[in-house]
Specification:
It contains nine helices and 56 strands. It has about 1000 residues and is mainly beta. The strands form 13 sheets. A seven-stranded parallel β-sheet has the order 6-7-5-8-9-10-11, with helices on both faces. The two termini are about 65 Å apart.
């Protein structure tokens, strides 16, 4: 392996949170998937530990330090390796700043008269060591969460935290100088961030990154620089799971470094790691801005030459924004009164993060709600002072943060600005009509928290153009047949951005009409392709408009029972003399709305109460208040989710009713109900459920049940429930299925090992085919593996099924264990959890795969299966020595023919079309029920025999084997028939 060292320069940053009242936390996190976030935190914890273990092993083998301090006093700590073997070290490297971002205009004594100092807000800071929490300028407002006992204070972390919230002399006062702070060491940052979002975190600051060239003069591989890698994807996933959380990150200090061997353009393309994520806010570093007393930028902004330039490889606008990080005076770590002066994007990032905290405080003060991260990010980009090239660019991003302009947009929302949070459903178009007076530019920005993209971990070349964007929204402005398009970076990042077509790259899109003609304009947002989850929430910010009145929501979206009323509150404000009438839009059929008051001609609150919900179909609705004064109209929407205490039966989908030949492990599934929040699942061998072998309540619409008996009838039902009530069990649909007979011991060995070598280079792949024959239907599948590989944490092992069953892919092992070698085990759903031993092979016995093999049950196994080993890292290789598929074939149950059907005849068999059924001279009291199944147990038809002799026509079916069952009272028999035309 190469002995290359990457240094992550920790650009001082800090974050802030928000008011930590219980009500705020509930409002922020009420729609979060808490279980998924906790699960993801555990996953990241394991990943982070594995990455460190791998890096430490490399360090010992190559005699490089686990940590060290350089001649400047910066602390460096080894954290991980790139896939191709480059060690990554996290490394450590104000009123002027507050004036630059205009935070002073929000503080007490500022020109806006807002008194926003961070009161009741909580800032979060991750950095390279412990903050000197007892510093005089922190008082008792700062705590160290993960290293409280240490007295080894870090100058960088202390300086960054001070830039956010220090409360000392004017020249060293932080942006939010009355906020409290929660600080963390950068170790396990992803895990800790997920823990904090459940506590209502709004913003975090991260000032560390990977420079293009390390202090040992080792340059990163070109593919790594600017790419959307797994780090970026992980942070996007965190943001997507917690839509009120915004990660603020430094861009890096590689601006003067020209060592990228294959840049997009000379002087550009220097962002790495999580700086290329879509959903965070990446901050560039400028020198002190020249602003007048009113906060207007009066001279061109000068970038600090060390600030890392973008764009990303797919040409997204990065960095996002610029702050002041040059020569910042802040708190020092050498004593409780110490100060220090530092320069870097590390300093610009907390300057921005602390300022944004004030904007969240302002919005909450006015509306009792915080903004989603996409709203805050979009607002910051929208109101920034354009710097550098015209439009957004790869040096300044959208420009210098202008907190005064952003705060004014919040204050004048609905009058001279528009800020709203909307949802775009699949195939939907959102539109709004606005009025421009023609005196200011008309600017509209759409921003959204995008679904995590497909990361490049070295499998794609440098400057690969594959888009990281997943949900592609488009914003346009139209008037009188003219269409105005959003900004988009030029292919040459040194040239001005274009605005001649849709932007299919960025998740912040802005349309700007520099000199609009006075009049009405229509702003539309739609999308291309399919939206993941069939929807995408987005935020809309508009300035340069004029309205004589405004309606701003001051209450949350609602979820309630149909016997309740839905009450929403709004702030109404107006200019001049006008009377506005209020009506409702989007009401569910049958619902009614009452407004208090019904009209307003002065500023004040408005309440919309929606009643008669008991006759409304349960589900989600977008309801709106419409204000109209005769010449203007304004609409604000809120979401309403209605639950009823009356339930419809749940539709059971798998297995189908009366299906036979089911495996002894089966995935029970059913259709979701809009009226259900949870489901009670019961399984029994009795149709009246006098006893149950399973009785559980779950939130999902599927459940894997195992260890069923062979050749046994089972009955199952699902009862929905919600906060308003529970479905009646006696009304539940009861389905049945019969398990088949397992015939095990069918083994298929791989014989072709021509591609079984796992190379020691990055992104190595080895594969082995396994041929399965015999017409087996899978009732249980195990995979026996014998793989030689040093350091098995590096690889992933997958099994891919034949194309005839859709080429299903099951991940068997996903970077298991740590410093362990070799695998000789059986992957078995009933095995033990992965636990590597210290001996070789490290993984033995029966082991549970990463993804269940149960999903393959019921499929025909014939065809070529492929066992694949992927190793994205270099330095460790191996060989697939052997692979064996162990299959239990499931056969349809063949009941013993009872005496009632002792003279039964079914002929001809084989048949070319018609099958005669003769029950013989039986004295039967009831009509007989004949059911026809395919070989996989799926019912094809049902027929009632009213006479002793009848026939069925199967000539329209494909040739093959079918199953007939005949039931009469308690008697039942099963027969195979063969169709051969």
């Amino acid at each position: 392996m190469k002995n290359n060292i990457l240094i992550l320069f920790i650009v001082c940053t800090s974050f802030f949170g928000f008011a930590q009242s219980e009500k705020d936390i509930i409002n922020i996190t009420k729609d979060y998937d808490v279980a998924l976030i906790k699960s993801k935190a555990k996953e990241f914890k394991i990943l982070e530990e594995k990455e460190r273990t791998r890096a430490y092993k490399y360090a010992l083998e190559n005699n490089i330090p686990l940590s060290y301090s350089d001649e400047k006093g910066n602390f460096h700590q080894l954290m991980k390796l790139t896939p191709d073997g480059y060690p990554i070290y996290f490394s450590t490297e104000n009123q002027a700043a507050a004036k630059s971002t205009r935070a002073v205009h929000l503080n007490t004594g500022g020109s806006l008269g807002l008194t926003l100092n961070g009161q009741g807000m909580v800032a979060r800071v991750w950095d390279g060591g412990k903050v000197r929490t007892q510093h005089n300028h922190f008082g008792t407002r700062v705590v160290c969460v993960d290293d409280a006992a240490s007295t080894d204070y870090n100058f960088h972390a202390t300086h960054v935290t001070g830039t956010v919230l220090a409360n000392g002399a004017t020249n060293i006062r932080g942006m939010a100088y009355e906020a409290t702070g929660r600080t963390f060491n950068w170790t396990d940052d992803e895990t800790e961030v997920l823990d904090e979002v459940l506590g209502g975190m709004l913003i975090s600051n991260h000032s560390y990154g990977v420079p293009v060239t390390s202090t040992t003069n080792v340059t990163l591989p070109a593919w790594y620089i600017g790419t959307y890698d797994s780090d970026a994807k992980n942070w996007d996933e965190i943001s997507y799971l917690s839509p009120y959380y915004l990660m603020v990150a430094s861009a890096g200090n590689s601006g003067d470094d020209q060592n990228n061997s294959d840049p997009i353009a000379f002087g550009f393309d220097k962002l790495t790691g999580n700086k290329t994520a879509k959903n965070n806010l990446v901050v560039a570093n400028a020198e002190d801005a020249v602003v007048d007393v009113n906060g207007n930028l009066t001279s061109p902004l000068i970038i600090n030459s060390s600030s890392s330039q973008g764009p990303t490889d797919d040409r997204r606008i990065k960095p996002d924004i610029t702050g002041n990080g040059t020569g910042l005076l802040s708190t020092g770590s050498n004593g409780n009164s110490a100060t220090s002066t530092l320069t870097g994007t590390s300093m610009a990032s907390p300057n921005v993060a602390g300022t944004l905290l004030l904007l969240q405080q302002h919005h909450n003060n006015l509306t009792t709600k915080f903004m989603k991260a996409a709203t805050l990010k979009g607002l910051a980009c929208h109101t920034a002072d354009d710097s550098g090239n015209v439009g957004p660019d790869a040096v300044f991003g959208w420009g210098l943060l202008n907190a005064k302009a952003a705060a004014q947009a919040i204050t004048s929302n609905g009058l001279n600005a528009w800020i709203s949070e909307e949802r775009l459903n699949q195939n939907q178009t959102y539109s709004i009509t606005v009025k421009s007076l023609g005196t200011l530019p008309l600017i509209a920005t759409a921003s959204w928290t995008d679904v995590p993209g497909d990361p490049n971990n070295g499998q794609r070349p440098a400057n690969d153009l594959q888009r990281a964007l997943v949900n592609d929204l488009d914003i346009r402005i139209t008037q009188n047949g003219n269409t105005y398009y959003p900004w988009k970076l030029n292919d040459n990042p040194g040239s001005n951005s274009t605005r001649i077509g849709d932007n299919n790259i960025d998740n912040v899109e802005q349309v700007k009409i520099d000199a609009p003609v006075a009049g009405d304009y229509v702003i539309t947002i739609n999308h291309k392709g399919n939206l993941v989850n069939n929807k995408q929430d987005f935020s809309l910010i508009i300035t340069g408009i004029s309205s004589s009145f405004a309606i701003v929501p001051t209450s949350n979206d609602l979820e309630l029972c149909a016997n309740q009323d839905a009450t929403y509150t709004f702030n109404y404000s107006q200019t001049g003399t006008t009377t506005t009438n209020f009506t409702a839009t989007g009401l569910p059929s049958g619902a009614t709305a009452v407004f208090t008051p019904a009209t307003r001609n002065s500023n004040g609150p408005v309440t919309m109460t929606i009643s008669n919900l008991s006759i409304v179909n349960p589900g989600s609705y977008s309801v709106g208040i419409v204000g109209n004064n005769g010449t203007e109209s304004e609409t604000r929407f809120k979401n309403l989710k209605i639950y009823s205490s009356t339930f419809s039966p749940v539709i059971l989908t798998n297995p189908t009713n009366n299906q036979v030949g089911i495996a002894t492990t089966v995935n029970l599934s059913w259709n979701t109900q809009a009226n259900a929040e949870s489901y009670r699942l019961q399984v029994s061998t009795s149709s009246n459920f006098t006893t149950t072998l399973l009785d559980t309540t779950i939130n999902q619409n599927s459940y894997i049940i195992s260890n069923l008996n062979q050749q046994t009838y089972y009955y199952w039902r699902v009862t929905p429930s919600n906060r308003c009530g529970t479905g009646i069990i006696s009304n539940a649909t009861v389905n049945s299925f019969q398990t088949g007979i397992l015939s095990c011991g069918n083994e298929f060995l791989a014989t072709n090992f021509s591609n079984a070598t796992i190379a020691s280079t990055a992104n190595a792949t080895a594969s082995v085919p396994i041929l399965v024959t015999g017409g087996l239907t899978i009732g249980d599948l195990n995979v026996a593996l014998n793989i030689t590989h040093t350091y098995i944490q590096d690889f992933k092992v997958k099994l891919t099924g034949p194309a005839s069953i859709g080429s299903p892919v099951i991940t068997l092992l996903d970077q298991p264990c740590g410093d362990n070698d070799n695998v000789n085990c059986i992957m078995d759903d009933d095995g033990a959890a992965v636990a590597c031993g210290t001996s070789v092979p490290a993984l033995t016995g029966n082991v549970v795969p990463s993804e269940t093999l149960t999903s393959l049950n019921g499929l025909v196994a014939d065809g070529t299966w492929t066992l694949t080993v992927d190793d994205p890292y270099n330095g460790d290789g191996g060989t697939i020595n052997s692979v064996k598929l162990i299959i239990c074939n499931i056969q349809l149950p063949l009941s013993t023919v009872d005496t009632t059907f002792s003279n039964l005849k079914i002929y001809p068999n084989p048949t070319s079309g018609f099958v005669n059924i003769d029950l013989g001279n039986q004295n039967l009291e009831n009509n007989s029920i004949v059911k026809l199944f395919d070989i996989q147990g799926r019912i094809i038809s049902t027929k009632e025999m009213k006479t002793a002799v009848d026939n069925i026509n199967i000539s329209n079916l494909s040739d093959g084997v079918y199953i007939i069952t005949i039931e009469n009272g308690s008697s039942k028999t099963t027969k195979k028939i063969v169709l051969a035309k």
